Amino acid sequence: MKKIEDTTIIPHSLVKIFFDEKWKQSVDEKEESVYKYTNPGIQFLMDFLQKKLHKSSSEFKALDLGAGDGRFSVLLAKNNLEVTAVDFSEFALERISQRAKIAGVESKIKLIKDSVLDFSPPDNYDVIIACNVLHYFNSSQLKKILDLMKEHTLEKGVNLISFESNIKMFLPDGREFKFANQPDFDIVYLNKFLKDVYKDSKWKVLYENQIPVSITPYLPPSISSFLKTEYDYYLRDFVLYDLIFQKVL
Ligand SMILES: C[S@@+](CC[C@H](N)C(=O)[O-])C[C@H]1O[C@@H](n2cnc3c(N)ncnc32)[C@H](O)[C@@H]1O
Which DSSP helix (H) or strand (E) runs through 169? Predict the structure, then answer.
């Protein structure tokens, strides 16, 4: 049985540096996303948008919080939505811009460099997504972000929350690490937390799904030097918990 002090804690201040370095690393010329897995909630969302909403998709407005290299922003834009992508890493936004150009949807994506915590949305949206990002915040920050998402959702609009829970990060030599700010959101706690925030007669659960994910992402230099290791990848296991809420009134 491992003792808790065996887990190395990475200071939260390294999160932005971690992502800047991650998004700066070179990619192939097709500019594919670095992510080799997808979030099942996105597929459900795309089907839902095509079938259920009453407007034509070019009138839909979407907000992508913590958009990363833009795999979902570009997908939404390719499906004709007007997308606003927010990320605090300028290198992420550069990636989105390159990928949008390649996909021919540059004019459909507005890029905003800001922290999700300070951001105040300039508009209301049919679709707001926060994928693989909310685990960087503690409970009160998370509640603040979710309240903002709820408030800026148009009638009949949806929020997709794609949450990494039960996260385990470790080096190939077995040493574990985690980011200081990252709460240990386990799936049971998270289920209750998210449903409590949306426990409101205006909102209903449209979709819910969990899948286990195991990946070996790039370990940027700042983190490998902090961990005093030569590895440039690490092992990451988590349960991807997707929930879609719809504003019904
Ligand atoms: C794991 S990536 C996920 C990217 C994308 N949503 C996806 O699923 O492909 C997390 C992204 O959130 C961004 N991020 C983390 N904390 C943030 C914050 N406080 N404000 C804005 N962006 C943040 C990172 O820069 C990174 O691009």
Answer: strand 153-170
